[in-house]
Recover the amino acids of this structure.
């Protein structure tokens, strides 16, 4: 199951205003941090927000690319074993390791991984349970 989607935007405030207006029609609320805005159901029916905006600024870490990576996709897994298998399959299919399976600091017991398929210009795939 799809976990969440994140996109990088050059104008975080304008994007936030747009998506707050749009997503309020389906009862989503916003959690705001300095460079990240998180959107999710107001009733907290998902374990984490399902849509994220992240401010994009060209810098050395992204090779000063004028455009951001297009999207971050996350898929839910039922077990840590599935997360491990998802990561292994991503590597076998030609992806690169962008974070081995393990606990993350995002939230308690958040076990995730990251693979990247560079031929599509920095599309991160991640699974979590």
């Amino acid at each position: 199951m799809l976990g969440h989607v994140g996109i990088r935007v050059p104008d975080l405030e304008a994007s936030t205003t747009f998506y707050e207006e749009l997503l309020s029609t389906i009862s989503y609320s916003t959690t705001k941090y300095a460079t990240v805005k998180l959107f999710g159901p107001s009733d907290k029916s998902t374990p984490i927000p399902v849509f994220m905006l992240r401010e994009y600024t060209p810098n050395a870490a992204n090779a000063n690319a004028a455009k951001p990576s297009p999207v971050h996709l996350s898929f839910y897994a039922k077990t840590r074993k599935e997360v491990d298998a998802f990561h292994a399959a991503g590597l076998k299919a030609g992806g690169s390791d962008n974070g081995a399976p393990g606990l993350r600091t995002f939230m308690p017991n958040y076990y995730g991984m990251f693979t990247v398929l560079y031929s599509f210009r920095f599309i991160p795939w991640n699974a979590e349970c």
